[in-house]
Amino acid sequence: MTSSDSIPIWQELNDESRIAALMDTFGNFHDGCIREIHVATSHYVDSKLWMHVDWPTTVHLLVQRQFHDPSAIELRFEEVVALRLCPPSPDCESIISDAACVWRDGILYWAENSRWTPDHPGSPECTWVAARRAWWRDASGWLGPDLRYRQGDEITHG
């Protein structure tokens, strides 16, 4: 997706059939990787230095994979209730074999490991998100090493 590409429509993940369709469309995230995660809270400080606090948090995930149609997707989670980021250690690959995506008690859970469950969120250790609302869209134009959520802030080491 470049600036000249049309922006794909967000597909809401609000029931088991839509979750199953996403998992089928994206091959259960097989041979995929999390390229980027962006988190935004609704807290901020204005120009008068007053703190504004609101509870909603939004998370965007860009996931790329080694298959076509689609080869990358963007997941958007709103009203996030939990996020666990588990970066890979330097000597490990972080390739997704199969992901988990579960709708339970009004919360959508997504994890990069299919053995993960909301009942045992620490085992296996992996990145996961839990939110009240979620969507996905095709992001096949976002393959490669370029950052999409944050650009131009590379640190040069001297």
Structural notes for this entry:
6% of the residues lie in helices and 37% in strands. It is mainly β. The protein has one domain. The radius of gyration is 17 Å and the shape is globular. It starts with 10 loop residues before the first strand and ends in a 20-residue tail after the last strand.
Total number of beta strands: 9
Please count the helical segments. 1
Helix content, binned percent: under 10%
Backbone CA Rg = 17 Å
User: pLDDT below 50 for ≥5 consecutive residues: which ranges?
Assistant: none
Report the order of strands and helices: EHEEEEEEEE
Strand content: 35-45%
Number of domains: 1
> What is the average of the pLDDT values?
92
Taking the sheet with the most strands, its summary is: 7 strands, antiparallel
Terminal residue distance: 34 Å
Supply the helix-strand structural class: mainly beta
How would you sum up the global shape? globular
Please name the defining characteristics of this protein.
two-stranded antiparallel ribbon; 158 residues; 6% helix; 7-stranded antiparallel sheet; mainly beta
Summarize the structure.
The protein is mostly beta strands.
What is the strand and helix layout of this fold?
Elements: E1 11-12, H1 16-25, E2 32-41, E3 44-45, E4 51-52, E5 57-65, E6 72-84, E7 100-104, E8 107-111, E9 128-138
Antiparallel strand pairs: 1-9, 2-5, 3-4, 5-6, 6-9, 7-8, 8-9
